[in-house]
Amino acid sequence: MGEEAPVELTEEEKQQAADEEERAKVMKRMAQIVDKGLDKVKPLLDMIDQTIDEAEKKKENNELDEDAFVSKMKPLIENAHSVMQSTLDQIKALDPDNKFERLAKRHVEDSQASADEKMVIDGCNELSTRVQATIDKGRKAIEGMPKAKSELGPLFSMLSEPLLQILGAVGLLVAGVLNLLANILNAIGLGGALTQVLQGLRIDKLLNAMGYSVSQKKK
Q1: Could you report the per-residue pLDDT of 192-213, keeping only the tens digit for each?
Q2: Number of neighbouring beta carbons within 10 Å of residue 123
Q3: Which residues lie closer than 8 Å to 203 by C-beta, 6 or more apart?
């Protein structure tokens, strides 16, 4: 009785296996990049928070110098933005051939996240929660500071852009991350410029599939 011949994989099955192997490797690298970005940006965010707390105390005592506050805050926010932008650039460099969208399509409907996916989702959740907390704190603090609101408001918006793009870029490969992005979009509202960013990242259709309308602009 002869041995059974090994089952030959079809070309499609071979490609799928290769895609899954590549996806797993990329997800591990993504998790490392996100964690490193968080480690670098955290001290800057802590300094921003501390500067805001100090300014609010001075404001209560009518001792606030808005010019000095703005001068201290600007480089901190700009440096935090640089770290986030660098993190985004490293993530984008993992996908030079725009393969993520194809690899993601098989996983959009998956309800159970793999260990690799969970690692990426957890990292992105920690990063987005930490960055967004500082942005929210800053925006709230400058409401009663006309000069600071005028000069720092746009910088806080600038800081949020790479965060949203990081979640979008990672979300191409790990659909669970899109939930984090959708939560932030629900909180801040979706403007036309941001819609273009999402369409540029090719995740507008994935978000639409999850029930979040990217084509609709909130007023």
Answers
A1: 545 555 655 556 665 665 555 5
A2: 21
A3: 168, 171, 172, 178, 181
Q: What region does 189 belong to: left with phi over 0, alpha with psi -120 to 50, or beta?
A: left
Give dist(CA 78, CA 134) in Å, integer.
13
| Prediction pTM value | 0.79
DSSP symbols for 114-181: PHHHHHHHHHHHHHHHHHHHHHHHHHHHGGG-HHHHHHHHHHHHHHHHHHHHHHHHHHTT-TTHHHHH
Q: Say how many domains are in the chain.
A: 1
216 falls within a domain:
no
Tell me the residue range of the domain where 157 lies. 13-95+113-170
